């Protein structure tokens, strides 16, 4: 019995065991939250890395509301701040390696760095372009600077487009005028100049840009703010930390279309008015040509050409600059500039030829030109 009693007596002292277990459990639980929080934070960070994708398309079609910088509002504010910090650090590292300070940069570029809007690659491109006297002079103009920072071959593409335009337009003028080419040289010059202006605008307006523009004032209208936040090219690659909604990309098409309509209508007005002036002068001198030569309808031709520029030329050049060149060719050939320029030359020449064919079909469709007048059509863009 004593043995049995001695065996059963220890059990009452073990009654506090639940408290001991509770203390151990409480201590264990108090230590767990910190590691769990850390692990969860580290597990989320790889997903944030997807914002560094060059197209910025992972959230570009997201929230419709964007601020003036093109950054999405709402729940993505933390991601924008992180991307801005990364851009700022990259830019400062590039400046430090180059031995440059913020004070030596243009004010708008320095402000963009401070706001975290541009990554280090843009600053590196700016420093490279500055080594050329011509590029340094061109970057004094905001429009050229924004386009050169997005594409260091932008000036070469302007030269290609305008060079092709001069050749094709002059050849077409000679084909139409033949023996009267040198007699009508003033009109030929006017036509070629108008064509070159149109060609330049077709390269300039749809070209991708690095936006350094400050935000509009709070008093600006809703429409002004919307178009201010749109990219210059509907298909352009968004910088790290910036995204464009589908509505903003459609806005880029509409905004450039309106500008190209004005450019096309104006250039056609000048060209057709000069052509009609020459035709009327010929009729006054040579009475036999009164029935042979007809005046070109100024208003209908000019409006039709403006519509053609706003729709056909606008869409083709947006796709050419934003998809074919920036998204397809440049990632593959960015280290082979000569080959890239050669392919761009071939593609832009083909696009000009395609434009001439589409213009002939369109002009016949709307009735501003008759089929027999189109045996030797003028090449347009």
Automatic annotation (TrEMBL):
A Pfam family it matches: RETICULATA-like
GO CC term, one of those recorded: chloroplast membrane
Gly residues bias spans: 59-81
Domain of life of the source: Eukaryota
Record membrane topology: Multi-pass membrane protein
Annotated segments matching region Disordered: 1-20, 59-86
InterPro entries hit by this protein: RETICULATA-related
Record keywords, A-Z: Chloroplast, Membrane, Plastid, Transit peptide, Transmembrane, Transmembrane helix
Presence of the UniProt keyword Protein transport in the record: no
Keyword Plastid on entry: yes
Subcellular locations according to the entry: Plastid, Chloroplast membrane
Homology family: Belongs to the RETICULATA family.
Name of the protein described by the UniProt record: Protein RETICULATA-RELATED 4, chloroplastic-like
Organism: Gossypium barbadense (Sea Island cotton)
